Amino acid sequence: MATAQLTAVRGDREKGFDKTFQTGRWARELEMDSSDMIVVDRLNSRYRGHQVLYDVSLTIPGSQVTVIMGVSGCGKTTLLRHLVGLKRTDPGRIFIEGEDLGSFDGRQLEDYRRRVGILFQSGALFNSMTVAENIAVPLKVHTRLADETIRLMALIKLNMVGLSDFCDFMPSQLSGGMKKRAGMARALAMDPEILFVDEPSSGLDPITAAGLDRLILDLREALGMTIVVVTHELESAFQIADQIIVMDQGRLLASGTPEAIRANTDERVVQFLQRRADSGQTGIENYLSSLLG
Ligand SMILES: Nc1ncnc2c1ncn2[C@@H]1O[C@H](COP(=O)(O)OP(=O)(O)OP(=O)(O)O)[C@@H](O)[C@H]1O
Asked: 37: helix, coil or strand?
């Protein structure tokens, strides 16, 4: 997309954002900032009565990359499911531009989901469709555009992620990194204002993973997109984040800029950061020594 077009898209979003926010009746009550895209207020969550999130409160600023980190099972994906409106808070509140997500009716929820793009861990492509057909799915479901227009829009998105030469390939013909990129193109199909990405680096080699990190930063810079990334990868998190949220056993342990998280002296935060670094090294050493017998 040309720079002028990108700027126009961004300008429209910002205008819409301010208008919506000013009418948000909860905004004043919680003293939200107009740059806050999402505010989570004492969120609790359960699966069949089993509590997995405890009083999580956090803010996701607009046009920034927020990274959610924590060890396996701490509740990152569950938090993501709440943020996209796939799971009801029990109890707690989530505000989207000052409006209570829990009070949305079916239509408002659908409108919200239309403004959101999600890249699942696996890429979640349909194996029976070509790459371009996969990207076209959200456009076919949510718009009445002509097939030719939809194909053109799909090609634009594939171009954005560097896959324009692979539009007629089947997913099985793509590498893991290319599948992730195709998943990203599909998440971008509806020009989302908010992009949620679950584990972008999982299963990828470091160079491919770094390419995806670069793509996330490009999207923020070019489109002013609000991006929420769940990851285990410490290095990637510090590379892309404007804000890092560290979770531990269903609770928010710390949140702040990468610099603030690095400087955090809380024992559990320090342990988390060191354990990730240590376990990576030990893993490689163990792996090499296992190869050497
Ligand atoms: N559908 C489900 N039904 C029941 N329990 C679930 C379900 N999904 C997750 N859980 C439980 O909720 C807790 C948090 O899981 P969640 O997947 O949110 O953690 P996570 O931090 O994303 O983990 P990972 O990094 O391994 O993906 C875990 O104890 C998990 O077993």
From this structure: strand
How far is it, in rounded angstroms, from Cα 200 to Cα 212?
7
- At residue 215, what are phi and psi to the nearest 5 degrees? -60, -40
Q: Give the nearest ligand 1 atom to 232 CA.
A: 25
How many angstroms separate the alpha carbon of residue 52 from the centre of ligand 1? 8
The per-residue pLDDT for range 97-118, each reduced to its tens digit, is 989 999 999 899 988 988 999 9
State yes or no: cis peptide before 61, omega within 30 of 0. no
- The predicted pLDDT at position 34 comes to 61
Q: Please, which residues have CB within 8 angstroms of residue 80's CB and are 6 or more apart in sequence?
A: 68, 196, 198, 228, 230
Quote the pTM value.
Answer: 0.81
Query: Could you give the domains of the chain?
Result: 62-85+101-285 (3.40.50.300)
pLDDT for 274-286, tens place per residue?
A: 875 444 444 455 4
Q: Whose CA is nearest to atom 2 of ligand 1?
A: 47
Q: Tell the burial category of 226 from Cβ atoms under 10 Å away from its Cβ (0-12, 13-18, 19+).
A: buried
Residue 143 CA: distances (Å) to CA of 59, 138, 147, 157, 190: 31, 8, 11, 16, 9
